[in-house]
Amino acid sequence: MTVETDPLVLIQDLVERALKAGADSADAVAGLSTSISHAQRLGKTEKLERQESQDLGLRVLIGKRQAIVSSNDWKPDGLALLVERAIAMAKTVPEDSFCGIADPDQIVGDNYPKLEMFDPQEPSAETLIARATETEDAALAVAGITNSEGAEASWGQSRIALAASNGFAGRYQGSNHSIAVSVLAGTGTAMESDYDYSSAIFGSDLTDPVEIGRSAADRALKKLGARKPPSAKVPVVFDPRVSGGLVRHLTSAINGAAIARGTSFLKDKMGQAVMSSGITIVDDPHRARGLASKPFDAEGLANKRRNLVENGILQTWILDLRAARQLGLTSTGHASRGTSSPPSPSTTNLHLETSTVSPTDLISDIKSGFYITSVMGMGVNMVTGDYSRGASGFWIENGQIAYPVNEVTIAGNLMDMFLAMTPADDLDFKYATNAPTIRIDGMMVAGT
């Protein structure tokens, strides 16, 4: 392939040009993507689009100064201008004593794993239309469903290439299929809406469209007649649809960038109990058909499955090279980046491991409590751990789901919440971050 058509060859050439132009070191990332999306409402097409894009980013370092320039112009003249601008910028920006690419002995080399991340079967537009139609029709066929907010089906693929002056050169490709629908139940001011969706690397792994449609309808119908519960301090149970958010709050608090800035409520908790005994949280970049899998990190370092929390004990920060240098540690292979920004720490496929308790048993002894199916708002303070969000779901009475509730606020502190967590056994790998049903005792619920 020519330099113009092979993204890895292209960015290797770009790095060489940067070095010849005066850079002490450099790296570059390139991405090409193709996607098709279809949206419809009540059987009528609202969107059918195909998009193709390409982008690349060049990072150059001169001493302890770095600059990043991105472009979707891959023509020779455009690339020459990209190098020129990056070098000029790097000569003028302030120094950053912690920036820099990996040393040659840190990179993974060319023996990185080949992961199951790409479905070579591109669906036709007709296939996507059929998926959306089946999903919406199944939902509308359920008695009590009165309207549709629309159904969508999409597919996309991407190719990523990374090269650096330390000798690293690697590439991988991924794909994604998805279907979704949102419908309304009831009439007038008593209407309620809900949705369901499925997303997978391989089209064959998608949940059946009819099942998705019926599930969305069932969720909407169950919300009819919602009311506010009494304000109280009660056990709160997070449905798997929302429990993964608690895991993401934990990983935000142990992100190396936040730890280096001292802006995390867990900044002094390494090696200590930060969650209840028995809880283990895993980050696995190599999980087969994982929605966030990748064979190496964005700095060319090896990545691997890690227990971030094991039996409640915090095991590691989430580190890229810069955060690791700030903390006097070694990168954990968690660098992520786009084409227009430097690497930063980020997780991949996350999950909280299960217990042996069923969701039914988890709530069986709750005399009065709140089962949450959706949360809203951004009331989470990562410096203090204070947590306050809007929520809706169902009220629990005597170990049973009693009635739907909405317009509720839940509040607590993440440190206390983590230490009070009890997971169930219903883990399902549906998202990039997954957790089973989770119970937390003693949270404040503000209703009537």
Walk me through the structure.
The chain has helices spanning 7-20, 76-90, 125-140, 209-222, 240-253, 256-261, 321-327, 359-363, 414-419; strands at 25-41, 44-62, 65-71, 145-164, 169-185, 192-200, 232-238, 281-283, 306-310, 313-314, 335-336, 344-345, 350-352, 368-376, 386-397, 400-413, 421-423, 433-434, 438-446. By secondary structure, the protein is of the alpha+beta class. Among the domains are: 125-162 and 171-222, PmbA/TldD superfamily (PmbA/TldD fold); 226-448, no CATH class. The protein has a 6-stranded antiparallel sheet. The protein has a 5-stranded mixed barrel with strand order 7-14-15-16-19. A 5-stranded mixed sheet has the order 10-9-8-13-18, with helices on one face. Strand 2 (44-62) and strand 3 (65-71) form a beta hairpin. Helix 3 (125-140) runs parallel beside helix 4 (209-222). The chain is globular and about 70 Å long. The model has no long low-confidence stretch (mean pLDDT 96).
Quick description:
With 448 residues, the protein is an alpha+beta fold. Helix content is 22%, strand content 36%. The strands form 4 sheets. The protein has a 6-stranded antiparallel beta sheet. Strands 7-14-15-16-19 form a 5-stranded mixed beta barrel.
Strand order of the largest sheet: 3-2-1-4-5-6
How does the overall form come out from the CA principal axes? globular
Distance between the termini: 67 Å
Taking all residues together, what is the mean pLDDT? Answer: 96
* Structural class computed from helices and strand pairing: alpha+beta
Share of helix, binned: 10-25%
How many strand elements? 19
Give the ordered list of helices and strands.
Answer: HEEEHHEEEHEHHEEEHEEEHEEEHEEE
Main beta-sheet annotation: 6 strands, antiparallel
